Give the backbone structure.
Amino acid sequence: MGLERNVHEYEERPDRPDGVSCLSCLTVIGGVIALIIGLVVLAVPADQIKPGAEGLRSFGALLIFGGAGLSFAVAWGLWSLRTWAWYLTLTLEVLGICLSAIQLLSGSNTLAAMLVAGIVIYYLYRPHVRAAFGLD
């Protein structure tokens, strides 16, 4: 009975907004880029790595691959209009703004990243987007 209710609620949602489709596709692209970066990190020849840092290379690649997996999961969730994907995207964008602000204080130019994250957050709160995710 619970499954029927969940399927019924999903069917009542409006069509996926074009912006959510774009956001999902961009998230997939980010995941692919992360996979490529992870492979590049692993492809660094052993003689190019400082002694004792081999474990850090593997750990770094593992984190990058984990980020790629998260990107693919979020992209699927956005494409499928899963409520958890809306919340996770919002959380990741807020964290991105916080990290960009810290980098900005250290002299890095991260205003563009902050602006993009702000636009995504604004878009997620648009009434038709919230309705598509079943949040209204």
User: Anything to note?
Assistant: The two ends are 23 Å apart (CA to CA). Residues 43 and 82 are 36 Å apart (CA to CA).
